[in-house]
Amino acid sequence: MHRQILFRCPRTGMNVQHRIDDVRFESSEPADSYVPVRCPACMSLHFVNITSGKLLSERNGPVERARSA
């Protein structure tokens, strides 16, 4: 069985949908588990929480990106 997670790419700011297997993450996994996801928006590897869809870098709040003028 599959389920979708939605996260925001920190590089592009785009919302990204990714499908993960529920079978891979059984009830033995804690709710604070992160999975590596290859982002189709920037092709980088992000670690996404399997429950909330938040990135590992967002544990202490969202990351602010500097913008050039």
From TrEMBL:
Q: Which domain of life is it from?
A: Bacteria
Q: Which organism is it from?
A: Bradyrhizobium nitroreducens
Q: What protein am I looking at?
A: Uncharacterized protein
